[in-house]
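Hi U.,

Before I forget, here's the chain from the pilot set. I'm dumping it here mostly so it's searchable later in email.
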Amino acid sequence: MKSLVIIALVATTLCARADDGVRFTTVTTWQQALDRAKAEQKPIFLDAYTDWCGWCKVMDRETFADSTVAAVMNASFVNVKMEMETGEGIDVAMKYRISGFPTFVVFTPDGVPTYRTTGFRAPADWLPMLDAMRDPSRALKQAGVTPTLKLPFPAWHRAAFEKGKARKQPDAATVHAWFDAYENKYDEIAFGVILKHRLRPDQIDWVLEREQEYRRLYDSEVDEVLQDKGQLVFKTAVETKDTSLLGKVVDFFRPAKDEAVSLKERLEAMYYAQTKDWPGLGTQLQSMSNELGASASSTVNEFAWQMYETCDDERALRAAASAMKPIATRDDADWAHIDTYAALLFKSGQYAEAEVQAKRAIERGTAAGADVKETTQLLERIRTAASGTKQSK
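Structure:
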C-alpha cells in the first residue's frame, strides 16, 4: 500500500513538472496534504479558495504562473489547493478561521500553522512574502491551536461556511446568547465564533480586556477583534459625522508596515464614501494619486469605481477621473484601471477621451484573457452619448 502512495506522489509530481508555474495538488481531505508534506518533508502551502473567488483566479493566472515565484514555491513547499465550501474544506475553514478569499496558510509537515495572509499579490509583492513565510522568526505562535481538525462547533456556525444558497447566517441573538453561555471562551470553538460573527459591543470589550491571553493563544489573529471594535467606532463616526473619531479608529487596527496607503487615508476615503461626501472623496483620491502614484493604484481604483457606480456629482466625478488619469495612462496600467478611468470620463461627459480609454481597456483586457463584455457595452454607451451630443448641437 505504501508503495502505491509513493508511486502516486511521484506520478503527480512528474505530471506537474510538465506545466509552467507553481505545482499545486488539489486535495479533498486534510490528511492528503499532511501525507504529502511528511513524504516530501516540506511545509504545506495551502491555497484556500472558493469556486466564485475572482481574485483566486487572478492569483493563479498572474502570480502562481510567474516563473520566479514558481521556482521558490516548488522548491520550498508542498503546494496544495483546497476548496473551502465543500466537505472537509468546511472543517478546515472553521478550524483555521478562514473566511476571506483567497487565504494562504503555511503549515509545518505536522500541520502546525506558521504563517497566513489574504488577498491577491502581484509577483513583485508576493516574493518578499515568500521570504517571510520561510523565516522562522516570523512564524505564528498559537498555543491555543490543537492538532484536532474536526471540532464540535455549533450547527449554525457551520451553516455560515456552506456554499451558495445553503449558507445561512445566524441571527445576532443566537450568537450573543451562545457566547454568554459558553464556558471556555478561550478555546478554538469560542475564538472561531468570535472571528466569524459580530459580538455585542460589551462582549467585544470583554475579549479585548483579555487581549494578551487571546494573543498568547492565537497570535496576530486577535487583530481582527480589534478591527471589529474599530468598525463600531467608525460606524459611530459616520452616523454622527464626527471626524475626530477617525483618529481613534486607527488605534484598533494593525496595518501592514509596508502598505502604500496609510490606514488613516483609507479610513478618510471610507468616511467620505459612506457619508456620500463625493467632493471630499474626489479630493482625497487626487491627493492619494498625486502623493503615492502607482503604489496607491488599487485603493484609488476601488473608491473611484464606487464613485462611478453611486455618484452623480459631475465635479466630483471629474476629480475622481483626474485621480485615475496618471494610474490608467501608464504604459503598464492594469486593464481594469483603464476601464474605471473610461467609465468616469463617460459619466462626467468627457466622451472623446472616454472612447479612447475604453478601446485601450478592451484591447489590454482581451490580451490578458479577461472578460471585457461590460467594457464593450460601456464603449457602445459612450458612442451613443457622444452621437446624441453632436446631434443636439
